[in-house]
Amino acid sequence: MKVLFLHPDLGIGGAERLIIDAAIALKNKHHDVKIVTAQYDESHAFSETKELDVRVIKLFPRHILGRFFALCAYIRMIFAAIAICLKMDFDVVVCDQVSACLLVFKLFSSARRIFYCHYPDMLLTERKTYLKSMYRFLLDSFEEWTTGMADIICVNSQYTAGVVRSTFKSLKDHKLEVVYPSLNMKYFDEIETRTVEEIPEDAKFVFMSLNRYEVKKNVALAVKAYAHLRHILSATEFDHTCLVIAGGYDKLNQENVTYYRELVDLALANDIPSRHIVFLKSPSDREKAYLLKRATAVLYTPHNEHFGIVPIESMYLGKPVIAVNSGGPMETIDDGKTGFLLEQAPQQFAEAMKTILQREDLRLLAAKEGPKRVQRLFAFEAFATQFDRIIRGLPVD
After folding, report:
1. What topology is assigned to 186-377 in CATH?
2. What's the predicted TM-score (pTM) here?
3. Which of 58, 218, 260, 305 is the most exposed place for a label (fewest CB within 10 A)?
4. Structure confidence by residue, pLDDT tens digits, 113-139
5. Rounded-to-integer distance, Cα 31 and Cα 217, Å
6. Which residues of 232-264 are buried (b: 16+ CB within 10 A; e: fewer)?
7. 227 closest CA partner among 199, 196, 198, 269
């Protein structure tokens, strides 16, 4: 079948990772796959995009005088959808993040429409003023209306399914397919273990935070927890530790630039010695794998994260994950076996870090149970088979 993916911005993030994995999965199942996006920079995208047919349709700016980003995204996707209907032939269209384009496909195409909802967009913005509230009311209503135009709505977790039903009242009885993002285990199996130059050689215990430099990722929690860890360890123990903050960074994204600076300043304000904390910008896929293999444990700090692929990658590599007890991690992490689920309090995170550092038996348990859990629940082939059946319109077990 001819399958077309329409995605707003093919950068580096969980949504992009899922779309690329889905495209690769369907390509491996012998479908003719194309990805259309309004924004694509090969140097700021996952390496697998080079192996896919990616086309850019950019017919409207990302913003107007630094404002109206959401409205512009809607218009960009509507224009892209119109261009697709005029120029391209496809049997199935898979959209995500922006549902506005579904209206165009419903009106001007006979293709089946699949919408992958990572999380309702209306819950990802603030409404501080009356004008902003009115502006968002119109967009939110349009989002709910157009989301309902999908033939099939997929979500990334049971948590997100519940949020969608409670947020979009008109969809409370709509069938939702839970399609967990997958992990390409073969990729991690083929990555060798190697030294990471930025990490001090004498750092026996390395705590890793791997998230984009965005406020919603709550990375400051990792810095504060590490600062507290310094006060509950002996000087000798702490001297053999290191915290690595790594994640997607786009110099054109003002939030990335500002939040990176805030995190560096936070480390300085908490008197964390520079040799004990490392900040890395936009590590490549291979570098991220090297970092995870080097880690003793991974700190996953977002609150109410919709799913979260980093805990899956970490568990597959046998690393315990310390995460906030909300959202997707409640489904992915086996508390006490493959990591810890905690309140978003620096003191709790620090105590868990100390426990992992001092108890080899827990590290060994995570090394044993983590890979088994990922193989059982998040294997790439299971994901590929499920997505293939959805594309073909077949029942999903």
Report:
1. Rossmann fold (3.40.50)
2. 0.79
3. 58
4. 999 999 998 887 878 888 889 989 999
5. 35
6. ebeeebbbebbbbbbbbbbeebeebeebbeebe
7. 269
